[in-house]
Amino acid sequence: MRKIPLVEGEYYHIYNRGVDRRSIFQNQADLSRFFESIKEFNRVDPIGSIFVHSFKKNKKNDKKLVEIIAYCLNPNHYHFILRQLVENGISEFMKRLSGGYTQYFNLKRKRDGALFQGKFKSSHIDSDEYLLHASVYVNLNNRFNDKPAVLSKSSWEEYVGKERDCICNTGIVLEKFRNKKEYEELALLSLEDIIKRKEWEKELEF
User: pTM value?
Assistant: First the structure.
């Protein structure tokens, strides 16, 4: 894939999977650690280890590298919609997130080597229509099968008002709707279309 320059103030769909399609979350503790890493590594000033940083006071004043619009964490891959806030913000955030979590995962399981399939992939979101479509795709990415995977977590609950531990700026998408219910209804209709299209594409495979 051609390398796309990441520009401050722009929105991007960021995604990657485990090397050899392996699981990156093997239990709930892994999923919780990755989610905590998302929050803690999103700072311009490096924090070192999450454990040491947990004792720091007044963490809310830390300037962020990226603005998180949506996310989905699946057993063997992840998706983000991010807005870059500072130069190289997305690259730095993803480097810290991937590196920090890989170190945790390997130490816990006494393994060596890469956990993710190379550098993250990115697509520039260059219109409001694309942003809306991407938000649905990411928010509901763990629902493309009959039901969400057990080891998965997404920002869907933030968008429909059922999540307390919120890390996303949902306003950029929700401001285009009269209320959260309207977005929810549109998103679920779009999910049906996505599933039907995937089934159709699978039928065309030989």
Answer: 0.89
